[in-house]
User: What shape does this take?
Amino acid sequence: MSAASGTGSSALAHSQHRASIVPLRGGVPFDQVFTNMDYNGGPVMPSSTDYMLMWSPGGVGAYPAGYISGLKRYFTDLAHDSGGVQNTDSVSAQYADLTGAHSRYAVTFGGILVDKDPYPAAECPVNNPVVDCLTDPQIQQELVNFVTSHGFKADLSHEYFLLTPPHVETCFTSDPTTNFGGCSAGIVPFNTLAAFCAYHQNTSLSQFLIYANDPFVPGNPACDDGNHPNGIADGELSGGLSHEHNESITDPIPNDAWTNGAGAQQGEEVGDQCDGQMGTALGTAPDGAAYNQVINSHFYWYQEEWSNTGHACLQRLSPASTTPSATFKVKKGSGLTLNFDASGSIGSPGFVLYVWQFNDVFAAQTVEQSTPKISHTFPSAGSYSIGLTVFAIDGSSAGTGAIVTTGHSGFTNGFTFSPSHPRSGHTIHFSGLATVSAQPVLTYFWDFGDGATGSGASPRHTYAAAGTYKVTLVMFSGVGSAFPGDGAGPIVQRTITVS
Assistant: This one.
């Protein structure tokens, strides 16, 4: 889901958090009007190395039999069929970002990680049968500490799925005046307004990290429908894990890549719009449970994902033979107005729809029109991350975006570097923007194009060999809700030549 981005749905949870939350079953009605995903200028995950991170001071014995092994088999099976069109991950492979990277079905299972660190002091309700409660800031801090101390990678191709034992619950904040900011479905007392089954997001600390929080939900009817062809682990898959996996690939920084940009479901992601929709059962497993996915010859049961192509929730999708292309130019107008022209974009013969996201005010809805030119007046001077989606008649889509600055024509470089003609073996100084979309940048993620990554606003890097490198920067200034507009997380890329 978006906001944070998660499984389980809740107006309060959407209004207060970056994470993408999986809604509770039977929550928000399905939006029949504004359905397709729109592009907002942020990154997708071109591949996904997934880790199961079991945070349990008591070790793996705290989990029920079959839970860990079942989820391990799911990730292993998903990797085995990687690149195919047999399951829902093939639906998510249609989305790309402005760098040309696609959210391909390219999955690797990184393995099971066990974190036996003690839980910090609970800052949210611990009432029987709950044995501990973790806030999202506590989770972020532990994940960063664990990943960095063990030398694991933190980038746009690695994700950590946090799986805590039964009755270890999660709330977003320690502030009871905000109903603890939204809590997991097993919290006591239970409040459906702020409950979630799972969520995904990125850290807002100095270390950039993509993660999903999947509290134990098998057996909880608010998240698990009880149909388990693959055993107890299916309760976690249908309760949110597969949902979050696909949303992470298509929108790893919630509401900054592909998300619904307008209407009642504004801010929802590919999983949210299909929450609880399983499609057609393919058969019956030996235990009598229905299954709708066959992965590496094993039976599974979990939700469909949203497809712009065809405007529908789908179990699988073969790639389209042709897709639109998106491009635009920008010229300064008077005052705070900028003029945009997407005439160079290509859609279906005789039809194309242009959808703009200007990310300049809270809850900013997209602007949809059939003509390629548009003018927009920003609320204050500065640099803004914007997105453009071009739709063909069948719903197939292409996205692009840029950082633009009021009073200036053309695009704004997201970062500078010096010297302008760098040499191998010499230090290069990089500097990212301090503010994007009227919000200070909280987290910087740098990929220097030679396998090295960095953080911070002004990192230094030395290339060992001469060559041409693509330097990628993601600047996260905070979305703060399920709606685009309050801050941004744009991806920018520049090519530099090192002599």
In short: Residues 1-5, 9-19, 22-34 have pLDDT under 50 and may be disordered. The first strand starts at residue 5 and ends at 7.
